Amino acid sequence: MNQRIARLLASMIAVVATLFVLGAPSLARADDLPTFRLEMNNGKLNPARIEVPAGKRIKIEVHNTGTNAVEFESLQLRKEKVLAPGAQSFVVIAPLQPGEYKFFDDFHQQAQGVIVAK
């Protein structure tokens, strides 16, 4: 029974090590993503137009600089992120084809923006 447990443990360690090695390159690349800053402030977006490289994963840092909650949302990109006042977070977006992708603040419908992939 002890040998069986030892083999099982060794197999589990091998699987975890393999997953770590396979996942490590993607973790390293996360720091290398082109990053764009978006400020959301009580119904205002800065900038409302974000130009990004087409064909590359990107990261958008979302900062709520207002006094109300905000929600970054894009139906086209299938992304949403709710932020409390003063909070910040990010969304990672898969490589985009050239074109325009709308986003908005779901809590402040007048706040409309666009990501332009070139």
TrEMBL record:
Short name of one Pfam family: Cupredoxin_1
Domain EfeO-type cupredoxin-like: 14-117
Keywords from the named record: Signal
Protein location: Periplasm
Signal peptide: 1-30
One cellular component (GO) term of this entry: periplasmic space
Residues passing through the membrane, by range: none
InterPro entries membership: Cupredoxin, EfeO_Cupredoxin
Identification of the protein by name: Cupredoxin domain-containing protein
Phylogenetic placement of the source organism: Bacteria, Pseudomonadati, Pseudomonadota, Betaproteobacteria, Burkholderiales
